[in-house]
Amino acid sequence: MILVTGVTGVVGRQVAHLLARTGPVRVLARRPERVTVTGPNVEVCAGEYADRPGLDRALNGVRAAFLVTNSATEPDDERFAAAAREAGVRHLVKLSMLAVGEPGADDFITRRQRENERAVRESGLDWTFLRARTFMSNTLSWAPAIRSDGVVRALYGTSPVACVDPRDIAEVAVRALTRPGHEGRAYALSGPEAITARQQTARLSEVLGRSLRFEELGLEAAREQLLRKYPRPVADAFLESAERQRAGAKAQIVPTVREVTGRPARPFRIWAADHAEAFGRSQG
Question: How far apart are CA 76 and CA 26, in angstroms?
């Protein structure tokens, strides 16, 4: 049995889908009604990281687990690793971020992820870290404005990022969960190209068959927008990360997806075409 967490997110959901094609998978969800992964091979367990009895139920009989944590303040990695160790789990595959391995990254979120990785590393379990660059799916936040106004508003439109398709991350995760030889590895994951927000807007325009306009947000406007959604330490971390991207720190392309899966990482144009309906292209 393999346990997957984060199944209402883009990576965890895809990991569970892939695993369910070939064998049993159990998913942990705080709100089971939001789980869209279904089928005869899927078992849904209600619970959350602070719910130790729920964790124990979900981890019973589990050989390996895919771990996604999002809280900037709760010790969820420590909680999960401790419960997994006591349950006899042998291998944790943890979704992390590429900035963890970059000395120039010192924002709040990156520091927390380094602490989270350390908790897993020191748990005594075998581990694999998937250090992913920015998800291509983050551009879904542009969808409402694209549908209503035909405009993309973002900070620093000409700063490049080697963003990665979440489906590629999921395929690497499944390899690590189901095949030997990935223990003790920290995989840096990127897409096959460094692309800017302006270029992403152009790709979306081609896919949708309609003209889109890019408007660059000022720094204060971006800050206000972030503070409406996140606490200040998290908002500040996103802005610090944007400055690193502006300086070229996120443009490096790494071949890990090809090395692990045997096929090249998907470019943004493929991701955009596969998700065009979310931005307003009608089907058929």
Answer: 19
